[in-house]
Amino acid sequence: MSPAMIELTMKGYRLLRVHSKPEVLMEVELEQQPESCLCCGASRLHSKGRYERRVQHLDLCGRPAWMWVHCRRYRCCECGRTFVPPLPGILPGRHSSEPLREYVYQQHHDGICASTLAWRRRLGQATIGRIYAQFTERKAKERMSLQCPTVLGIDEHSLHRKQRFATTFCDLKNRRVFDITPGKSDADLQGFLERLQGRERVRLVCIDLSSSYRALIQRWFPRAMIVADRFHVVRVVMRHLLGIARQVYPQLAWKLSWLNLLRTRGDRLSLDQRLRLREVFRQQPALQPIYEMKERLCALLCIKNRTAAECRQLIPQLIAFIHTLKSSGFDLAKTLAKTLQDWSEEIARMWRFTRNNGITEGFHRKMKLIQRRAYGFRNFNNYRLRVIAQCG
Length: 392
Ligand SMILES: [Zn+2]
Hints:
By secondary structure, the protein is an alpha/beta fold. Helix content is 48%, strand content 19%. Helix 3 packs across helix 4 (125-145) and helix 14 (358-373) packs across helix 15 (380-391). It starts with a helix and ends with a helix. The structure holds zinc ion.
């Protein structure tokens, strides 16, 4: 027999002969017969007769191949039990070898859909689903015993209609999804958080401006510092200040080009845009102070990588902004001032740390694609397995 052929069978087997019509069928036997009983270890064994297994195996030169394993059933003369020696690479009750199952899993994981793969491998679609679940479940089980990462990003994402939201726990240091769990309230997450190991290891948690998540972190991750997500803070500021601009000049709602100019950061404007902005301020001078306020506030919020002492020096600037907003007389400004005040500690930490939830948001995009590829998931656990397999 050619060495390549022997290599294609699995370790622990001896190739007896190969039938190549109509399919490749490799007859093999175990290299080593058992010497002792699996139950009691006694060495006196009695053969009870032949035992055969046929399993589908990896393709041989592009043709489907099967393994035909010849072995024996044994009876122990001491304890009287009968057993079949364990077959390497073939699990009890399976009709395909583990190398083939792993190959199918990898192909499906790489994006070949279950129906195509089932047709190619002459398997059922449900079998592909089972093989995938089996391999991903192994990965997910390892996840349950894993310790919490030290830097977490927590955010919600939406699911289908019945189960509205799920919470993502993202390992921001290693850039992967740590876990996902249904719901977003404290009551929904309680069970999951109780089971979580090493919660005291978490040092930094990044969240958007959600008070329910903040309360949850303070309760469940006692040693963690909360950092606000820069993108969300800037978005809240923009939304409120542009809202004020619209109150000052209601026709702004229809002037999209003006809105775009006001939204863009000053240092990113082209020369032409700068001239147009000047024209806007000439026609509506009331918009200028709002725009300048937005520019200065966003510049303050975008500062990062500062030491604790430097952060302390920046705090009076934030407080000054909050006072200006409070005394401006606009309701929207007062709301914004309140939000900034409520979150001032978390915002101040943004100056110190660069971590943000950009990675988590990126994974949310990928999760949406996973949901769409499957035309939605009914079973949350199946969805979780997919997410852990592809983003974990
Ligand atoms: Zn025995």
